[in-house]
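INTERNAL AUDIT FORM
Audit reference: QA-55
Scope: verify that the stored structure record matches its stored sequence.
Auditor: D.O.
Record contents follow.
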Amino acid sequence: MAAASAVVAGMVSGCSADAGAKPAPSNTSAVDIEAALQEPTTLTVWTWSTVTPEVAKAFEAEYPKIKVNVVNVGSGHYQKLENAIKAGTGAPDLATMEYHTLPQFALSDSLVELSKFGFEKYEDEFVPGAWKSVNVNGGLYEIPHNAGPMALFYNKSVFDKFDVEVPTTWDEYLDAARKIRAADPEAYIAADTGNMGLTTSLIWAFGGKPFQSTSVSDLTINTQDKGTKAYADFYQQLIDEGLLAPIASSSNEWYQGLANGKIATLATGAWMANSLATGVPGGAGQWRVAPLPTLEKGEKASSMNGGGGFAIMKQSKNQLAAAGFLEWMETGAGRDVWIGAGQFPSMKADLESEEFLEAKNDFFGGQQINKIFVQSADDVLPDWEYLPYNAYAESIFGDYVGQAYLGKTTLKKGLAAWGDALSAYGEEQGFTVKK
C-alpha cells in the first residue's frame, strides 16, 4: 500500500505530481475543444473495458486527426495509476475510474476538474445518483458513464422447480433461501465469502450511511448506524444458517454454480445482465430479473453496485483533446456504441427512450429487463458517500468483516472493528474523523 498511502497523504494538502503536463486553460470554450480535435494528437486511455476500443474506432472515424490508443494495463490498474502519479510521469490522458475509487484520486489533486470545460451543464441530463458519484468536494471529475442500479437476478428454473416465490422483501428472501436449501442440500440462494462491494451496496439499500463528510478533511465513520445494523442483523442469519455458498465471486466454481442451478440468485448491478449472458451462455432462457428486495413490502429503496467513468489525468499533455473525446463518448454519438454492446447508461435520455425500455432480452427469456433497472435507478436512496481512501478500505475488509464468513466473529462486530481501523487510518493520513 505504499503508493496508495502516498496518494492518500496528498489529499488534505492537495498536492500532486504532474510534471510536463499542459493544463487546459480555465473556462475553455467548445470552440477551443473542437479546434483541438482538428490537430494531430494521440490520446492514451487506460481501461479494462472491452468496448472502449470500439468507441475509439468510431471516434477516430469522425475525427481522423486523433489517434486513440486504448491500453489494458492488466491487474493492478489503480496501483499503476498511483505509481505514475507518485513518479510524476507515465500516466495516460484518460483512465477508467469506478465511482467508489474516484474520491481517492480527485482529492489527491491528480485529476482535471471538468467545470473548466463547462461540463457541469450536463447535470440535469443524468440520474442524480450517478451525477453525485462524479462530484467530489464540490468538483466535477467525470461525466457519468455506465451505472449499476441494483436488482435481483434469479434462476427461474430453480424457483419453479422448488415452488419458491420470487422474494419482494428481505424477509421473503430469507424464507426463499431456507426453502431452496431444504429442497436441495447442494443448492444455495446466493454465494458470498465476504465481498466489500456487495456489502456496501446492501448497506446502502438498507438505508445505511456509514461514511459521510462535511469537507475535504472532515469525515464521519459510523459502521453502527441504523441502516448498517439492519443489514448486519439480516445478513447474519444467512451466514449462521449456512444459506450462502462459500464460493468466491468470479471464480470457476462460481460460474459453474450459476450454470448448474446451485447458485439461485445474484443481488448486484445492472451490468451483470451482460456478464451472465457471456459467462453463463447455457443459462439462456432460465434467468430473469426482479427488483431488489426491500425491508417493507411496497417500499422504494435501492442502491448502486459498480459503475464508473473516465477521468482526465492532470499529467495529460492533451487535455483539450481528451475533453473532446470524453464529451463525445458520454454525451454524444459514442453512447450508441457502448450501450449497444450491453453497458447500462446513466443519461436520462437513454433511460427514457422507448426503444431502450421496450427492448426484449433473449437471454432473460425475452423479458424487458431495462424497465426494472431504470426503476431501480429512480429508487436509489440519496446521500450515499464513499470513503476518500476506498482502496485501503477494501484491502483490509477481509481482515475484519470477512472473518464473519468464517465464523470467527459476527458481521456487526466485524463492521465495528473495520470502522475503527478506517478511522485510525484516516487520522494517520491527516483527516479529522468523527464516529
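Auditor finding: record pair retrieved intact. The chain has two domains: 2-147+307-372, 149-304+382-434.
Action required: none
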